[in-house]
Amino acid sequence: MKLVIALIAGMLFGGGLVVSGMTDTAKVQGWLDVFGAWDPTLAFVMGGAMIPMAIAWVLTKGRSPMTGGNFPAPPEPKLGRNLIVGSVIFGMGWALAGLCPGPSIAAISFGGSSLWIFLVAMGAGMFVAPRVRAMMDA
Amino acid sequence: MENIAFQIDWLYGLIGGLFIGLGGAVFLLGNGRIMGASGLIGGLVDGSGWSNAAERIAFLAGVVIMPIIVLQFWDRSETNITDNVVQLVAAGLLVGVGTRIANGCTSGHGVCGISRLSLRGIVATVFYIMAGGLTMALFRAVLGWI
After folding, report:
1. Could you give the angle at which helices A80-97 and A112-137 cross, rounded to 10 degrees?
2. Which residues in chain A have their CB less than 8 angstroms from residue B142's CB?
3. Which one of A109, B20, B49, B83 has the lowest number of neighbouring Cβ atoms within 10 Å?
């Protein structure tokens, strides 16, 4: 059951990414290009996604997940250096190619060799990240 | 005409966004999981998420399959992705390292975090958008490289 739900959730996510245009790197770079031809589409995507998600968070109150277990603990109010440094590094890469992790997976079937190069590099980055984090903490 | 095209893009953005949020809602209410793409992928890559690998793979399979289905009816395959290998490798490395150090990306911190008013999600989103905007300004407006 967990697997079926995960598959359905993934399908909604992947379908939404394609419909919204977030697999088009020009739209993402356009959103970040404040001094150029600024494209506000991403704000509509984020705003649209917040609506069902905010309702879902309200519905978690006093309930358990359908397949058992517990809902994730309330978010830590602690910010920390990793959150800031990591987000800045991510933002730089996001702008450079116009891709973040979700759309890079959603575009696998039609992104061609360029997308695969990005994916391999992203995988390598994720693989070394725990070591980078350990170096930062040392 | 251009104006109308822009507004249709916003509408597609809003509709697509609703589906993205619906996916997050299903994953949360069904499995009690936060829909964060970088965490779901990263846990498979570095081994930290192998205990629930099947659930992660099922989710990611859905992310790959649905666009294939959508594209049968609507050619939405324009990616405008660069073919500059240096740019792609640098971008991939930065996105991979950055999202894992920050413990989240646009879906986890952005969509799932902000919608529960998580301070971490809001701060992360402000910083990656600011860093992205500055990078864009430097590389496109100043240097004209991308």
Report:
1. 160
2. none
3. B83
**Substitution target from A35, A41, A42, A87 for chain B, most B beta carbons within 10 A:** A87
- Amino acid B93 reads L
Residue with tokens 């509509």: A44
- pLDDT value at B1 more than 60: no
B109 contacts A10? CB cut-off 8 A: no
Residues in chain B closer than 8 A to A77 (CB atoms): 119-120
- Where in the sequence is the domain holding B63, given as residue range(s)? 2-142
Report how many domains make up chain B: 1
pLDDT 10s digits, A37-92: 899 999 999 999 999 999 999 999 999 999 999 999 888 788 999 999 999 999 99
